[in-house]
Amino acid sequence: GKRQDLLQRLQRVVSAHFKEHTAQLHLFGSSANDFCMRNADMDVCFVVDEAAGSREEIVETLGKILKQARM
Predict the structure, then answer these.
(1) In angstroms, rounded to a whole number, what is the distance separating the alpha carbons of residues 8 and 43?
(2) Which of 32, 34, 41, 51 supports an S-S bond with 27, CB 3.0-4.6 Å?
(3) What's the rounded Cα separation, in Å, for the pair 33 and 10?
């Protein structure tokens, strides 16, 4: 569905930037079990190696790459 397509797109964008670190995205909550409404938000967990940087650096980087990808 649409959520899975978006997750795959996000995974490609994130993986391309964090190539040297194992970066994975996982749906959770109602997004994962299909109990969500059609226009609801999407719950995503981001897992990456500690070597990718501090939490603050990673969040800042994610914001930048998602903005560049117009997401």
Answers:
(1) 14
(2) 32
(3) 19
Kindly report the backbone phi and psi dihedral angles of residue 30, in degrees, each rounded to the nearest multiple of 5, phi listed first: -65, -25
**What is the pLDDT at residue 65?**
94
Which pLDDT score, from 0 to 100, does residue 27 have? 87
Amino acid at 40: A
> How is the chain split among helix, strand and coil, in percent rounded to 5?
50, 10, 35
Contact residues for 39 (Cβ-Cβ < 8 A; gap 6+): none
Q: What is the pTM of this model?
A: 0.79
Distance, CA of 47 to CA of 51 (rounded, Å): 12
CB-neighbour burial class of residue 29 (10 A; exposed 0-12, middle 13-18, buried 19+): middle
